[in-house]
């Protein structure tokens, strides 16, 4: 059986083109330390330009800003014909290129059909129908600018202006944090705590990332169900937004309830909580310690090589990918070879 695997990550490591894909751009921006942005050029294209004695800095910058040489008359025609980028090729030609390899490949061919930003639904439909008629087993399309933020080939004027503005003292503006999605199936445990006005059941749920949900229920003897539910919801929101368990419990542990203050034995007895928030904090610490112990035990034991490999992405990764950003460095991602890759840090959705 023959196959053409996605090679987004391998091409980044080897510095080559990614399989049957045309170059996405002859130049792109790589983000490095301290927020610096370096313009990188395809080595073969750079060598061809040097062989033609073209070293004009303004011309090279123009090429870097456009990503293509198709409409730059100062570049020799021979170079323009050879160095076509993904957006220089019309979508139907992309499909025909994939079909040419599909004819001699058993598995589906991993390739992206690139569309310009002004593409209409009918144009995409034509590509799908063409792929079906030519015998392609699958097709991946990407319309430029369909993700927010739009993937840019090089630095934009806005980015340059923002870099200049960094030299001037600016107030700190934090990005808005959105909680990760709750998994449909969770593991968890329930703790029983004695509080000033009765009993409180605290349920802590967690997934493969960590603790993500807190729920409470009061016993027949009373309690403050609305207050406990409000705290549980806010704690759950904080946990799924990446706030450390220790930071949350630090805020909860010192809160005391007047009902507990009337019963001195609750304050002196270590296994009882002095308030509903304190009980939730204690349950969080207990669950966190249990998970830490299990992780340490698993690390000491080593990986189970006989177990099937889990290729599912975490909820955090899925969140960033849905925004069109790299989960590792939060820069714009590219759709290439039927996969998602980041040229800034080398992340690949295909593993």
Written account of the structure:
The protein is of the alpha+beta class and 351 residues long. The chain folds into two domains: 8-163, no CATH class; 187-300. Helix content is 38%, strand content 14%. It is built from 13 helices and nine strands. The protein has helices at 8-14, 43-51, 57-66, 77-82, 91-102, 121-133, 157-165, 225-240, 245-252, 258-261, 264-268, 276-301, 315-322; strands at 27-31, 37-41, 112-115, 140-143, 187-195, 198-206, 211-218, 334-336, 339-341. The strands form four sheets. It has a three-stranded antiparallel β-sheet. A two-stranded antiparallel ribbon has the order 1-2. It has a two-stranded parallel sheet with strand order 3-4. Strand 6 and strand 7 form a beta hairpin. The longest helix has 26 residues, at 276-301. It is elongated. The model is unreliable at 308-313 (pLDDT under 50).
* Rg over C-alpha atoms, rounded to the nearest angstrom: 28 Å
Overall strand count: 9
Mean pLDDT: 77
Category from helices, strands and their pairing? alpha+beta
Helix content: 25-40%
What share of the residues does DSSP label as strand, in percent?
5-15%
Q: What does the largest sheet look like?
A: 3 strands, antiparallel
Strand neighbour order, sheet with most strands: 5-6-7
Separation of termini? 22 Å
What sort of overall outline do the alpha carbons produce when their principal axes are compared? elongated
- How many domains make up the 3D coordinates? 2
How many alpha or pi helices? 13
Low-confidence stretches: 308-313
SSE series: HEEHHHHEHEHEEEHHHHHHEE
């Amino acid at each position: 059986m023959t196959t053409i695997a996605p090679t987004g990550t391998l091409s980044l490591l080897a510095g080559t083109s990614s399989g049957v894909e045309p170059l996405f751009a002859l130049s792109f921006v790589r983000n490095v330390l301290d927020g610096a942005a370096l313009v990188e050029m395809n080595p073969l294209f750079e060598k061809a330009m040097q062989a033609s004695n073209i070293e004009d800095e303004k011309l090279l910058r123009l090429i870097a800003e456009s990503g293509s040489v198709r409409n730059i008359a100062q570049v020799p025609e021979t170079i323009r014909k050879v160095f076509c980028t993904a957006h220089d090729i019309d979508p139907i030609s992309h499909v025909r290129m994939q079909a040419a390899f599909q004819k001699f490949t058993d598995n589906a061919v991993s390739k992206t059909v690139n569309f310009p930003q002004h593409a209409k639904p009918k144009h995409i439909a034509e590509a799908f129908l063409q792929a079906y008629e030519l015998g392609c087993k699958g097709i991946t399309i990407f319309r430029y600018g369909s993700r927010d933020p739009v993937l840019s080939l090089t630095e934009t004027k806005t980015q340059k202006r923002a870099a200049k503005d960094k030299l001037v003292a600016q107030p700190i503006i934090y990005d808005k944090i959105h909680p990760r999605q709750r998994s449909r199936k969770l593991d968890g445990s329930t703790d029983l705590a004695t509080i000033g006005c009765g009993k409180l059941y605290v349920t802590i749920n967690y997934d493969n990332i960590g603790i993500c949900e807190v729920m409470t229920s009061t016993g027949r003897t009373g309690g403050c169900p609305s207050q406990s539910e409000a705290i549980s919801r806010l704690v759950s929101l904080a946990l799924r937004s990446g706030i450390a368990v220790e930071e949350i419990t630090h805020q909860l542990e010192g809160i005391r309830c007047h009902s507990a203050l009337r019963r001195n034995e609750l304050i002196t007895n270590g296994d009882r909580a002095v308030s509903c928030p304190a009980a939730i904090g204690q349950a969080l610490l207990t669950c966190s310690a249990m998970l830490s112990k299990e992780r340490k035990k698993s690390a000491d034991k080593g990986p189970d090589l006989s177990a099937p490999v889990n290729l599912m992405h975490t909820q955090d990764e899925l969140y960033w990918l849905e925004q069109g950003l790299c989960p590792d460095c939060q820069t714009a991602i590219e759709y290439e070879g039927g996969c998602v890759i980041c040229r800034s840090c080398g992340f690949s959705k295909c593993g």
